[in-house]
Every structure is written in structure tokens, then in C-alpha cells.
User: Which sequence fits this backbone?
């Protein structure tokens, strides 16, 4: 089953992790100090990323975590919003390539 993916910008990763951990009912499954965090719930794939050039809370992109995705893809919709499509393993590869110290391996949810 596909999970909706929402990615937003933040300027304070630690405070955002604390806030969204309460909102999403648990700590992130992956995080990189002062850079990035990811939560995967049964219905949602939600990430935050430090971006000093974007207003805090700004939408970075949307997408689908899709277990049947053959490759990581992205496209823009009619409104200019980037939509990604990826499997949990493909997302883990992207996280680990950007931040090797993450050592992130997704659990089946």
C-alpha cells in the first residue's frame, strides 16, 4: 500500500523533531543532527530538512512511498509541486548517499 510522503523545510531540526514526534506519536526512524529527520508511520512518510533559504514549514515536495516502485522518480504537477515516487529501500539509499553517517535501513511497517 502506498504511503503519502510530505517533506518540509525547517531552520531548527531539534525543535521540529520534538514537536513532530508528539504530533506523529513517536521519534523519527532516521535523523541526522541539525540536518534531517524521517518518520514512517503505517500511513505516512514525513521528513524535515534544514534549509536556511526557505521559510520554516515550507513544503519541499510531496510524493508516494510505494513498495512497487521500480526506481526513484520525480515530476512536477500542474502547480509546480515536485512529486517523488520511491520504495522505502530507494529512500534509504538516498538518505545514506547524502548522509553516510545515517546508517539508515527501513523497517517493514
Assistant:
Amino acid at each position: 500500500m502506498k504511503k503519502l510522503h510530505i517533506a518540509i523545510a525547517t531552520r531548527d531540526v531539534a525543535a521540529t523533531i520534538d514537536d513532530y514526534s508528539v504530533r506523529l506519536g513517536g521519534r523519527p526512524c532516521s535523523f541526522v543532527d541539525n540536518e534531517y529527520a524521517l518518520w514512517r508511520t503505517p500511513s505516512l512518510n514525513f521528513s524535515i530538512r534544514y534549509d536556511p533559504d526557505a521559510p520554516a514549514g515550507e513544503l519541499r515536495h510531496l510524493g508516494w512511498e510505494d513498495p512497487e516502485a521500480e526506481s526513484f522518480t520525480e515530476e512536477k504537477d500542474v502547480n509546480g509541486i515536485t512529486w517523488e515516487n520511491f520504495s522505502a529501500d530507494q529512500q534509504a539509499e538516498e538518505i545514506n548517499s547524502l548522509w553516510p553517517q545515517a546508517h539508515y535501513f527501513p523497517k517493514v511497517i
About this structure: The mean pLDDT is 96.
